[in-house]
Amino acid sequence: MTPMTTRYPLSALIRSGNFIDGQWVSAASGTRFAVTDPATGKTIAEVADSDANDARAATDAAARAFPAWRDTLPAERAAVLRRWHALIVANAGELGQLISLEQGKPLHEGRGEAMYGASYVAWFADEATRIYGDLIPQQQRGKRMSAVKEPVGVVAAITPWNFPLAMIARKIAPALAAGCTVVGKPAEDTPLTALALAMLAHEAGVPPGVLNLICASRERGVTAVADWLADSRVRKITFTGSTPVGKHLARESAGTLKKLSLELGGNAPFIVFDDADLDAAVDGLMAAKFRNGGQTCVCPNRVYVQSGVFERFADKLATRVAALKVAPATDPAAQIGPMINARAVEKIARHVDDAVSRGARVLTGGKRLAELGPNWYAPTVLADATPDMQLSCEETFGPVVPLFRFDDEAEAIRAANDTPYGLAAYFYSQDVRRIDRVARQLEAGIVGINEGALASEAAPFGGVKESGYGREGSKYGLDDYLSIKYLCQGGLA
Hints:
2 domains; 16 helices; 39% helix; EC 1.2.1.16; Aldehyde_DH_Superfamily; Aldehyde Dehydrogenase, Chain A, domain 2; Aldehyde Dehydrogenase, Chain A, domain 1; Succinate-semialdehyde dehydrogenase/glutarate-semialdehyde dehydrogenase; alpha/beta; seven-stranded mixed sheet; globular
């Protein structure tokens, strides 16, 4: 067994094949596609471009491996996960470099993501040994009733590009802890980090077929995922991404009645009341909004500031945002990196241009940074945003803060809830009675109260309304990979 402190050079972590049944293999068609650095546009590597044939091969391997993995002792699964965790931590620096290289976020954020993803592996290693059932109080003489929890079976995990390590780790770790086997497809923009994670899992002793990953371009990926949706052996889909795609997966998997976990789009409100600590609110907003350049599903998209403190808050925020260092991850001082691709920049520019045309004031930013390349946009603060602007109802997914005015608490809550989404919400207030009222009334699965950094492996992560269902992380996150079996034994009198 490889020592768990082994560190690999970055070049050794970059893999180009699919990982199926414990082997690195090419796509059945032999085709490949390029993975590029969003900061420079240069090709990092070419990886397998998979289709339904590769998806089916991954499912075959996972289905074969499931009975043996299901029957391992929880402590044995936990031991494998702990070895995997140790390898991720030992290689966090190199994994952080890889994340920054293919996704664009600053190096300190890349390493932070590696450690964050590792925390889920450690958490679920412990949770593997805490899968309890129930002995149901006896209802009839001679009859014993109990409930036990069992792994659902083969799990298909489909992940986005914005957190290429954390998103797949927090899906794979609970699945393996529960006794499930996994087939997965990382986003086409950022597959290299997921493949590196699979390599480390293999080194940690995850048996062949228990974890399988395939890469695919946007076009071929549709056919690969469609095969999993139709295959009755795949008993669960776990997906993080857009609401339209999540709805499609729900419809298409209905034929085999798969279990679903969907972490979908958001339109998070951030409310600053006039009794808030404004400096703390600015700190919280900077942490929540500008992590990964605003490319997170829980970052505030609509910032509501009470009229009495609007201008003071806007001035403080604009000063902080204007000072952000925009640069490639190769610059150790970088705070904001490139957007993932030119399509993302087009959407950001469209939202800002629409807002300005409808009366928004640009306090800082509001422009492309063409001198850096096609994927760059300046961190931006817009004052006097209104509900008729595109950015009020569409998720911008970029470093743009629109500031909306409000007069009273009821108005702020109505505006915050006036969205089909309900993933995250934030508010700042020092009034304890208001804190209780507002927290209860906000329609979101995650609420930050005087806090901008919400994520934790110990907390349940997920949304309500069109932001999806199911939870990741915490003790609740394991339930999504388990089914309950009722046992009734008679003839005991």
